[in-house]
Amino acid sequence: MNKNEKIQLLRDAIVSYSDFPKPGIIFRDIFGIFRNIVAMRAMKDLIVEHILFLEVDLVVGLDSRGFLLGPIICMELEKPFLPIRKKGKLPGNVVQHAFTLEYGEATFEIQTEYVKKGARTIIIDDLLATGGSMAAAIELLKLSGAEVIECLTIIELSGLKGREKLGLPVHSFVQYD
Fold this sequence. Notes:
Blueprint: H1 3-13, E1 15-18, E2 26-29, H2 31-34, H3 37-51, E3 58-62, H4 66-77, E4 81-86, E5 94-101, E6 104-111, E7 120-128, H5 132-143, E8 147-157, E9 170-176
Parallel strand pairs: 3-4, 3-7, 7-8, 8-9
Antiparallel strand pairs: 1-2, 4-6, 5-6
Helix pairs in contact: 1-3, 3-4
């Protein structure tokens, strides 16, 4: 199966819900991919094939769907996985970064003892929308001494222009306006 066929499998497996979580919003749900083992394998293959040549030291997943994607990829790449979580969810030495979302504020944390200075890091999440969460993760990793080389998502809502806020390469597999 070629790359375009794999991307089409992902697109076909993504379920769209109108007016969720509020009227006027179309929610793009990646869990349809996880319910389709062929699409899930295609997703894993696409991510691994993309990351394989980036010389990555660390894969970081965002709370919470990035937690589903990151470990699968890390096993294939034989690289460590580290979560970025919401405030108060991680033990040990953590560094925090507060940020504003379209509906309020949040704080991300990362365990600093597992981030080596200069570690070439890729951030993975399910979806890039306005870029607020991803931008906060980039800042948090910079504060921790890592070098973020790319942000990777399965879905990108390109009409919201989230990638413009990031100042780093962004790769997504399925785009919606």
